[in-house]
Amino acid sequence: MTHTIRATKARTDLTPSVLVLILLFVIVYYCGYCMRTGYKSDFEHTDKRESLDLSLMMDFGETDEHFVVYDSVCKIPRISPYSPDPATLQAPDVICGTKLQCTKPLVSKRFDNTSNRYYLHINEEWKDLYLREESAGLTCCFREIKNEASDEKLIGTPCFIFQQDFFVSLDVIGAIVNCMQRGTKKIVFMDAFSFIHKRNFSGEWRNDSKIGVLLFGLDSLSQINFRRRMPKSYKYLKDNNHRWHEFLGFNKLGYDAFPNLMALLTGRQLQQQETAYACKRGGMLDDCPFLWQQVSNMGMPTAYAADSRDDNTETLRFQHSPTDYYLQPYMRAVERRLRTDTFYITPQYCLGPRLAGSYVLDYAADFAQTFAGVGGLGIFWVHSFSEQHVIPQMIDYALAKYLRLLKSTKILQNYVVILLSANGMLRSRLNNLDSGFYEERLPLLYISLPNAWKSSHTALFQALELNRNRLVSPLDLHETIQHALALGAGTTELHCTDCASCQSVLRPIKANRSCSDAGIDWLWCSCEPFVAKWCNSYASSLLLKALLRHMNDLLQQAGLLNGICGILSAHTLYGVYNSQEESDYYYVKFKTSLKNAEFEAALWYNKTAQKVLLDERKLNRLDHKDTDCVEQHSELLRKLCVCL
Fold this sequence. Notes:
This protein is of the alpha+beta class. It has 19 helices and 24 strands. The strands form 6 sheets. A 7-stranded mixed sheet has the order 11-18-17-10-16-12-13, with helices on both faces. Strands 19, 20, 21, 22, 23 and 24 form a 6-stranded antiparallel sheet that branches. Strands 6-5-8-9 form a 4-stranded antiparallel sheet. Strand 20 and strand 21 form a beta hairpin. The protein is globular.
């Protein structure tokens, strides 16, 4: 009996320990199962970098959809923009100019409808606010900017004194205005103005009712980061969804803005672009067959404008004006003068009293209002806030204001308006998130059609609603612009892309569409089942070492490591992605220690032998590289070489 009691007591005392052991076994087994079957399989979970929980990757906002594109061929998850870490980061407060200059400018440009001329008006009622002495006089002058303006010509440009309501000459595309207190050389006001002078393009154009196309581009902005960083603009577009149609399956087809813009504006597929870009001369694209040339041949006006701080940040470069209205000479002049002559400190993203991108938006509004009813094509691209993923919120208010302006000035009634980006952020903290694969591949795209088409072209609006969740590429957008221009001008539509299966989004796009159907290389395809791997793991470090060893071997075999090119070593691994279709195929982004050179590479990796085979077509240099030392070598070696 005593033995029985003792045995029972012993079993009772052991019960909590046994339960704990069972619970630990279940937890270990469950975690092991998740590691074996989860999207980070076979790479060690030793990294503590920022990452998104799976529940955060699904934006349950106002819909129960888990995917933005979902069919048997393509599945793109709906990513939430509200990741905890990026959401806490804020853009710096930037104030351009003084509050007085922004709210009560001393000089403004005005337009006289009788003479169709611009004039400069001095706002006398605010003059005393700028002068230190009430009885002091005011002298205002302006520097002319013309189409052929160069840096050398700008240096010696005189500042002409002007009087009230001075009419601007028709050959002047812009003016930089200074006002000084008379008797001193102290500048009290500075600003710059661009001018769109009316010209006759198609007979009695005032009576025309043609529909044109306007493209507003925001550089390096994904649809996910647009929601995260530009809530005012996003809310406006969402509240006006009957007017603005969003395309959630818009996928880039090349690494950065250049191949995507070239596909959009020339209709060339990525693999055909090397041949197509034989037109590039000394970095200039004057001889390339852009879409606006066709528009000019139709007798309609064209415009191109972009902001950039230097030649390295200018995506499309031209020696001469490629369009009827071209803002770049003006922007170069403003960059030079307003950054050096300004009478107050100018923050990085400002030009004088405004954000740099505002000059592009102003130019776009002037072009659209000047040629309402004439048709035409205007392309307006904002680069200046694309360096960091938090910066777009700085221009959020300005963009939301211009979106409202498009409606209030009835621009939307006379144009098909396209708001887009060419790609998402390529190098930032966003790329280290699990959603980074989609952040850079899914740019934003919205399209607005004129209300007048609702009665005459009902099927267009139905197609836009259907295509919201279809896979779309820049080549499709090229076809869309062609389609819209033909409808707007009453002419025959042309099919002008190298992609036979690409089409206008103004027509229904089939479901079960593959990336190849849309002209998208599978490396950039958001449908491809690539999965993120832990960067800070032993397996990842072995892969990167093998890749760098292979890259250095290629340079060594070419005899370039003898003082011409530097030896590549690892500094930062941005991301590792593994193809689920081809288990030994990887996509890697990283930075080397030598001159911070950055690379993006696709490769086949044998883990057992730790050997790499580079997919040479998918190797990209992400930094602004200097290749003068290997100019005569192959394209692959020019990409690999970091000149010493």
